[in-house]
Amino acid sequence: MHDPIDKLPFSGSDSLPFFKQLLKEKNAELHRQFDPHRSVLPLLHAKSDFIDAILGRCWRLFLGDHAPRLSLIAVGGYGRRELFPYSDIDIMVLLDSEGAAPRQDALVQFFTFLWDIGLKPGYSVRTVEECVREAIDDQTVITSLMEMRLICGDQALYETLREAIAPDKIWPSDQFFAAKMKEQRQRYAKFHDTAYNLEPNIKEGPGGLRDRQVIAWVFKRHYNSSTLKELIKYGFLPVSEYNELVDAVEVLWRIRYALHLQTNRCEDRLIFDYQRELAAQFGFSREDQQYNQDVELFMQFYFKTVQGLERLNEMLLQLFHERFINGHTDIKPIPDNAQFVSINGYLEAVDEQVFIRNPASLLEMILILQQHPELKGVRATTIRLVRKSLHLIDDDFRRDKTANRLFVKIFQQPRGLTHQLRRMNRYGILAAYLPGFANIVARMQYDLFHIYTVDEHTLFVIRNLRRFSLEKHKDELPLCNQIFLLIGKPELLYFAALFHDIAKGMNGDHSTIGENIAREFCRQHDFSAHDTKLVAWLVRNHLIMSMTAQRKDISDPDVIYKFAQQAASVEYLNHLYLLTVADIRATNPELWNSWKDSLLRELYSATHLMLRRGLPNPAGQTDRILETKKEAYDELLKLGLSKADIDASWRHVNDDYFLRYSADEIVWHTIAIASSSEAELPLVLLRPQTQHGSAEVFVYTTNEGNIFSISTATLDQLGLTVLDARIMTTLDNYVLNSFQVLEQNGEPITDLLREVHICSVLRNNLLNKAVHERKNIHRQSRQAKHFPIPTSIRFQDDPLSHCTIIELITTDRAGLLSKIGRAFLKQHINLHNAKITTIGSRAEDMFYVTDSALRPITDAETQKKLREEIVSALGG
C-alpha cells in the first residue's frame, strides 16, 4: 500500500487532486468491503494504515530534514488503529529541544495540505515537557497519550515521552482509576444514567463503546498491557466472558460503521431517521412484519448488547477497584445470614452452591443490599453465579411462597428500591421472575413522547414515586409529597407502576391485559382483596387522569362528576394522581411542564372536593363496603376473635366507616375495642406508620361535645402536625376520630416512650375534659407567612346527613383545628363528622355540624355569628 503513495508526484497544490482521488478511491473500496454481518476490525485497521501512509508521505516531503528529528504520533482512536469512515484523525507533533520556531513554516504547510485534501485532522504541537505538564493537569490528556502510536519520525524522542508519562512518574493507576470513575459518573449523568434511550448514543451513552475504552484504559494503566486478552491472564475474566466482551464490542463497531456510511459524517446517535435502514442492513426486515417490527427487533438487539456490556463494565471496574485500590481482602459476615459475606464492601455468596441449595437467595441477595446501605454492590464472582443460576427461577420458584414474600418485601423497603430494581433488570432476575416483564425488556415505544424503552420507563416511574416520599425532593412537587404522606402502603403504588405498561407490545389493550397480569400477581402473592383490587384498578385506569386533564374541559362540572365516579374514593384518587404524575415525568424529562402540572392539580382538587362532599350512589361504593367488611372480618377471625366480639365491636359504626378506613385499620381498631369495656373509655391508640412516616392516633369514646377540640388542642401542644383527620360520629353517639400526625419538623415518631406519652396525655385530657394552656411550640412556614391563603367559609345543607356542611379554606397554622373546635364550643355547635385535608400550607377542611338541638344550621344570623367566631379564632 505504501509504495504507490510514495511514488505519487508531489508539487505543492498540483498534488491535491491526486491525494483527494486516492482518498476517495480508498474510502469507496472500504465501503464496498463492509458487510454488516462480518467483523469490521480489518476495515478499521486498513483505514488507519492507509492514513499512516498518507501522513508519512506528506510528513517527509513537507518537513524535509526536520522529519527524522521530530515525532509524528497518532493519538485517540487513531492511535488504537480504530478509524471508522468519518472518525476524527487526531495527531500530535512531538518537538525536540529546538522547539517549533525553526519548523514553523513547514508545519503550517503540512497541516494546511492535510486540510486541503480533506483529512481535517485534529492536531497539537508540543515538547515532551509540555505533554507531561498538560497530562498532570488533565486526565483526558494522559488518557489520549496512553494510546499514542508512532507514525514516523524520531523513535527515541517518542520513547522519551512514553517513559515520562509512565505510572511511576505521573498518574499512578489508583489515581487514574478514581479519575476515570468520576468521569464515567459524569458522562452517565448526561444521559440520565440510562442506556435505554430510544435514540441512544452508541459511543458515549452508558453501555456504549466508551465503556469498553474505560476498561481498556484502566487495565492498561495498571498492567501496561497492549491487549484486553490479558484480562484472562490476570484472572479478571474467564474465556467465555472475554468472548462475550469482544462480541459485544464487535456488534457496536458494526453498527457504528454502518451509521457513518449511512449519514456520511461522524454520527454516533442512533436517531429514528436511521433506525429503519439499519434494521434492513442487519437483516431484521421481512415482508410479513407488522409496521415498525423490524426496527423494534433491531433496537432490542442493540439494547441487549449494551446491557451485556454494562454488566461486564460493572464487574470489571469492581474487580479493578479491589485489585488497584484496596490491595487486600477484607471479609465481614452479614448479620443473621449464613449465605452471604461482605468482601471489600461487596456482597459475595459463601460458595458456588448457595443458589442451588436455596434458589430464593437470588431475591434474598437483593433484600440484603437494601437493608445494608454500606454495601457497594454485588461482587463480580457472585454476579457470574447469578447469571448461571437464572434457570432456577422457573414456575416452581414463582409459586414458592418464600420467594413471593421476599419479592414483596423488596418493594416494602424504605430505601434502595429503584437502585436494586435496576440491578435486578441488569442481571436478568426481574425478567426471569416476571415473564411478562421479559416482554418489555429493551422494547421500543413509537408514540412521539416516550424516549425510553418500556422497561426503563417503568423503572423511572417507580423512581419518581419514591422521590415523592423523600424530604430532600419535596420542593420539586410539594403536592405530590403531601399526598404521598397519606398513602398507607406505598408498595401498592410501586406494583401498579411495575405492571402499568407490562402488556405493551401484546395484541390488545395493554391496560386491560396488564390489569389481568397484575391481578394474577397479587393473588399469587397473597395480597388482600382490597389491595388486589386497587392495584388492578390503577393498572387498568392509569391513563384516564392524564386523558381527562389534557383532552376534556375540566371546568365543566359534568366532566369532573364523571371522573369522580370513576375514581369513586379519595383513596383511589390519591393513588391515581401520584401514578399519573410519575408516569408523565418518566416519559421524557422535557415533557413535564407547568401547564400539565396545573391541569392535573386542578382536576385533582376539583375531584377531591366533589368526593369529599359526597357523590350520590358513586360507582362501586356498595361493593367496596362489602369487600372491606369481608376482608377485615376474615382477618379478625384468623386472629382469634369470635363473631360475637366482632359484631359487638361494630355495633356503633355505619357504612361510612368501612368506606373511610382500610381493612387493616379496621382490624386494628376492632381488636382494641373488643378488648376494652365501656368503663375504660376513652380508648386512645397510636400506631406508627413506618411505610409513609406518619403515625395514626385513634380515639374511640362516647360523644360528649368537645372531643374534637380537646384532641386537636392536645396534639398541637404536644408539638405534632396533623396531616389528615377522619372524624366520625355514629347514630348512637359514639365518636371514632383518627389523626395522621408527624413531629413538627416533619419527621416520624420513632421513640416508644414518646408514643406512650402522647396516648397518656391525650387520654387524661379527654377524661378531665380540659387542656392546660401553654405557649404553642409550632413555627409557621415562611411560605405561609409571606403568602397567606385568604380564609373562605361556606355553609351548605346536606340532606343525606341532616347536617350543615362548613367548608373552610385557609392557611394552615399552629393549632388550626383546636381553634376551630373551641369556636364550635363557644357557639354550642355539635360536630358529627369532618374531612380534614392539609396540602402544603393550604388547609381544606369540611365539618358536618348541627346546633345543640341536633338540627342543621340554616339561620343566616347563626351562620354569621359562627363565621365571625371562626375568623376571630383564626386571628383574622
Q: How many distinct beta strands? A: 16
Structural domain count: 6
- Most strands sheet: 8 strands, antiparallel
Mean pLDDT across the residues is: 88
Strand content: 5-15%
Provide the gyration radius in Å: 35 Å
The level of helicity is 40-55%
N- to C-terminal separation? 92 Å
Shape: elongated
How does the helix and strand content classify structurally? alpha+beta
The order of strands across the largest sheet is 9-10-12-11-15-16-14-13
Protein name: Bifunctional uridylyltransferase/uridylyl-removing enzyme
Keywords: Hydrolase, Magnesium, Multifunctional enzyme, Nucleotidyltransferase, Repeat, Transferase
Region (Uridylyltransferase): 1-335
EC number: 2.7.7.59, 3.1.4.-
Write a brief caption for the model.
The protein is α+β, with helices and mostly antiparallel strands and 876 residues long.
Describe this structure in words.
Its cofactor is Mg(2+). GO terms for molecular function: [protein-PII] uridylyltransferase activity; guanosine-3',5'-bis(diphosphate) 3'-diphosphatase activity; phosphoric diester hydrolase activity. This protein is an alpha+beta fold. The strands form three sheets. Strands 9-10-12-11-15-16-14-13 form an eight-stranded antiparallel β-sheet, with helices on both faces. Strand 5 (331-334) and strand 6 (337-343) form a beta hairpin. Helix 3 crosses helix 5, helix 6 (128-137) runs parallel beside helix 8 and helix 29 (557-567) crosses helix 31 (594-613). The longest helix is centred in the middle third of the chain and has 34 residues, at 293-326.
